[in-house]
Write the structure tokens for this entry.
Amino acid sequence: MSQTYHYLVRRLHSFAGIFPVGIFLLMHLFINSFALRGEAAYNRAVGFVNNIPGLVYLEILLIGVPIAFHALYGLWVTYVTKTSIFQYYYFRNWMFYLQRLTAVITLIFVVWHVWVLRIVRVFTGTEMTFLTVQAWLANPLYLTFYIIGLLAAVYHFSNGLWSFLVTWGITIGPESQRLTLYVCTVIFILLGIAGINSVYAFIR
Ligand code: HEM
């Protein structure tokens, strides 16, 4: 019973990493990329999202609850599988270690990011606009942490996609796992460039 329970929770954790958390990350990066088209385009894209009926409830149900579950179970997994990096001689072991390191960085980043850019905004009634983000990113400390958090989240997602395919038995043999390693590396590079490009649109 307990084995089956752990197996199911493990599967649910893996699934939640892509649906909906990973999909949300992609959508978020896509919305941010409107900043590249200028202030008005970004404000229009954010305004469209902010006008979705019942947004707060959707955010809590479709993003908040799954990410909280994924993060809490992920913290537990990180805790029970903690090992010294000196044990990591092989490439895949390093990926395993980086998956956990980026999980913790992403957690700190997401909590901070949601607090300053979402929750505080609900309390103060301020609107999210291009200028709000621009003023926020003008602080070099925020900017640095934003870039570190962004790259950690994007790495965690891309490497997680690779292990998701293994977990679900989609890539079984070494050949398919090598091929998806290349694909996921390209996804990491492209998402990283896209994310940093959008940040640059606010500070140039
Ligand atoms: C941007 C937010 C996040 C996304 C998109 C995401 C996505 C993923 C994906 C797709 C996987 C692979 C699942 C698998 O191996 O089958 C994964 C694994 C993992 N995630 Fe996340 N995750 C996010 C945030 C977090 C946070 C905040 C934590 C906890 C601090 C966390 C902890 C973990 C851990 C420990 C694993 C490895 C599980 C294992 O190998 O057994 N994740 N994540």
Remarks:
- Residues 2-203 form a domain with the 3 helical TM bundles of succinate and fumarate reductases fold (CATH 1.20.1300.10).
- The helical segments are 2-18, 21-32, 39-50, 55-80, 91-124, 130-137, 140-167, 174-203.
- The first helix runs from residue 2 to 18.
- Residues 14, 17-18, 21-22, 25, 70-71, 74-75, 77-78, 99-100, 103-104, 106-107, 110, 153, 156-157, 160-161, 163-164, 167 surround protoporphyrin IX containing FE (CB under 6 Å).
